[in-house]
Amino acid sequence: MWFYQIFLQILGKSEFNKYLVSGTIAFLVDYSVLLIATEWFGIHYLVSNVCGYTTGLLVAYRLNIRWVFRYRKYGHTTKKEFLIFVVIVIVGLVISEAVIFLLVERVAVPYQYAKIVSVGMIFIFNFIAKKHFLFTRDETH
Questions:
Q1: 36-44 CB contacts, 8 Å cutoff, 24+ apart
Q2: If you average pLDDT over residues 117-130, what whole number do you get?
Q3: Looking at residue 124, what is its pLDDT?
Q4: Domain total for the chain?
Q5: Residues 52, 97: contact at Cβ < 8 Å?
Q6: What is the pTM for the complete model shown?
Q7: Would you give the distance in Å from CA 106 to the centre of its chain?
């Protein structure tokens, strides 16, 4: 237990480290839904990816507003904040769907590995976009 607390304190020193942890948690949820929906329920991998991505979005949003970022530009208007968050994540979803489709259909990479490649490609984009558009101090107030 004490090791876990020390580990979280070290990681909790920067927003990027916290984002890395929260992103990992959101990815694990996303990836689990993808695998379960595809393997257990026979849903097409691109549809399963949308389901997983949506579930991961909700987990990421909660962690981002509660733990990762210090400032919330639109914290007083949660609907606007969530809408911008969703738009950023949808751009990431489009990238994810395109990468997975191309890798699976054109390069014959298994969808499970294609998903991991897509996550690597959008991780930094999501951090920069969220930090810039949502989680910076609003200097006008």
A1: 38/111
A2: 87
A3: 84
A4: 1
A5: no
A6: 0.79
A7: 25
Compute the distance between CA of residue 43 and CA of residue 88 in angstroms, rounded to an integer: 25
Give the C-alpha separation, 56 to 108, whole Å.
26
Of residues 104 and 76, more confidently modeled? 104
Average pLDDT over residues 15-23: 88
Q: Does residue 111 lie in a domain region?
A: yes
Q: In 3D, which of 95, 64, 98 has the Cα closest to residue 78?
A: 64
Six-digit token pair at 102? 């191309």
Domain annotation covers residue 139 = no
CA–CA separation, 30 vs 25, rounded Å? 9
- The boundaries of the domain holding residue 103 are 2-133
60 lies in some domain: yes
Longest dimension (CA), the chain: 52
76 within domain boundaries: yes
Task: State pLDDT tens for residues 125-138.
Answer: 888 888 888 888 76
Euclidean distance between CA atoms 100 and 6, whole angstroms: 37
